[in-house]
């Protein structure tokens, strides 16, 4: 039984640094494309046997120390009453723009509305048989709100920011509702067998630090406080948070996800001893020659300087055009270079 990942989440010493990759189940793997070619992305998310199959692929192929269930952060938003499409990016037909829109949103009944997510987790726990732990996940309230209000990805996030500044009551009502949904969604995942939870706040870094404190932190804090997590560590990843890690820390997770814009050692000094970290190789390093990948892995491990409580990862998701053998090589380098002398 490989407990490296969970041990590192709790800051305990490990034999080698555990490693997994954000978005490790996905299009860079021909094995994923083979499954994906037979159905749409949403069908894949809603078919537990197939979702479990693609979640296990990177465990077998890359030799990573954790599996992450296959789904999307927007999966639980659809049963709130928002029709969702992937083209391939997410698109909501009717974005949220008014209090009436917010009032129409419902909080899903998880067992009835997203049974496939809970079933995927159960299948995965059975099939992984404790070989590696299983990570469940959700989007942070703010990142979910960004998609629900913009209706799709955005460059300037004008709609969500306009709502935040000029209709703060609508914004607050929306964030409250999403936070309640998220809490129930993640607790249902824990109950189904998820052994750690990662909260993805992909867009938290688009705000000024003071706005992050006002408009994002209260909701993420409430979410994390509301999780049944006696034995379930929470990884909080806010992309672009390098200049406000002190604020993000207040949300109360167990592990801070770091992107590559911060020096991992500097971030650890700032966060202090009680908090583990996850990260933070630039995902594009996986396009580099093997020796460059090795040197970059070594640099990140050196920045950590042997402290316990480090989970190696990329600073954001793996890109779809990365050669799988480079990802395999990265994992091998992490394990070899971090191995404690016997
Ligand atoms: O990490 C994993 O292996 C588990 C699966 C996973 C997916 N999405 C599958 C997916 C996870 C953890 C996510 C999280 C997610 N989804 C985030 C947060 C992480 C991040 O990358 O910032 C966000 C912002 C989304 C929303 C989303 N889903 C976008 C913007 C897109 C389109 C861009 C893209 O990467 O294609 C998706 C689609 C998506 N989610 C795919 C996969 C494998 C590609 C769909 C396909 O196969 O066609």
TrEMBL record:
Cytoplasm is among the record's keywords: yes
Q: Which SUPFAM superfamilies match?
A: UROD/MetE-like
- Which superkingdom heads the taxonomic lineage of this protein's source? Bacteria
Which sequence ranges form a coiled-coil region, renumbered to this chain? Answer: none
CC terms in the record's Gene Ontology section:
cytosol
Single biological process term from Gene Ontology: protoporphyrinogen IX biosynthetic process from glutamate
Q: Where is this site: Transition state stabilizer?
A: 72
Query: Binding residues for substrate, per the UniProt record?
Result: 23-27, 72, 147, 202, 316
EC identifiers of the protein: 4.1.1.37
* Chemical reaction(s) catalysed: uroporphyrinogen III + 4 H(+) = coproporphyrinogen III + 4 CO2
User: Subcellular location, in the record's words?
Assistant: Cytoplasm
Signal peptide bounds: none
Q: Which Pfam families match?
A: URO-D (PF01208)
Q: Does the keyword Lyase apply?
A: yes
Could you state a single Gene Ontology molecular function term? uroporphyrinogen decarboxylase activity
**All copies of domain Uroporphyrinogen decarboxylase (URO-D), residue ranges:** 18-27, 135-151
**Keywords linked to the UniProt accession:** Cytoplasm, Decarboxylase, Lyase, Porphyrin biosynthesis
Q: Gene3D superfamilies from the entry?
A: 3.20.20.210
User: Which biological pathway?
Assistant: Porphyrin-containing compound metabolism; protoporphyrin-IX biosynthesis; coproporphyrinogen-III from 5-aminolevulinate: step 4/4
What HAMAP family does this protein map onto? URO_D
- Assembly and oligomerization: Homodimer.
The free-text function statement in the UniProt record for this protein reads: Catalyzes the decarboxylation of four acetate groups of uroporphyrinogen-III to yield coproporphyrinogen-III.
Recorded family membership: Belongs to the uroporphyrinogen decarboxylase family.
Name recorded for this polypeptide: Uroporphyrinogen decarboxylase
Query: What is this protein's gene name?
Result: hemE
